[in-house]
């Protein structure tokens, strides 16, 4: 014959499990995630100001985005590409590097 548990035993067990869940370390998987350095003067291209639509940016002053998804973007339209110029995410003409639109600040290179 089994002895019944005390009514408060279930409360105590639930409290312990709840506390364990609240104090558990962050279990977000980090495999594949890499620390990304902040944008340096090189990725800023020496620019201290926001890039302007119509500016032509030399190749050595921009970082072409190779993984648009990391910036929350889909593939660029045909003939365009995305880049980081002066700490800003921009859409450029793939052929001549002319800025077609300034999207938003991008203080870090993500790809």
UniProtKB/TrEMBL annotation:
So which residues are the signal peptide here? Answer: 1-20
Give the domain of life.
Bacteria
- Protein name as annotated: RcnB family protein
What UniProt keywords apply to this chain's record, in alphabetical order? Signal
Q: Which species expresses this protein natively?
A: Paracoccus marcusii
């Amino acid at each position: 014959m089994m002895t019944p548990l005390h009514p408060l035993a279930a409360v105590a067990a639930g409290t312990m499990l709840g506390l364990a869940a609240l104090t558990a370390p962050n279990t977000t998987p980090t495999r594949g995630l890499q620390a990304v350095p902040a944008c340096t003067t090189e990725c800023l291209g020496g620019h201290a100001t926001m890039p302007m639509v119509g500016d032509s940016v030399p190749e050595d002053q921009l970082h072409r985005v190779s993984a648009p998804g990391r910036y929350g973007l889909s593939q660029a339209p045909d003939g365009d590409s995305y880049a980081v110029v002066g700490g800003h995410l921009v859409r450029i003409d793939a052929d001549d590097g002319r800025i077609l639109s300034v999207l938003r600040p991008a203080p870090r290179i993500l790809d």
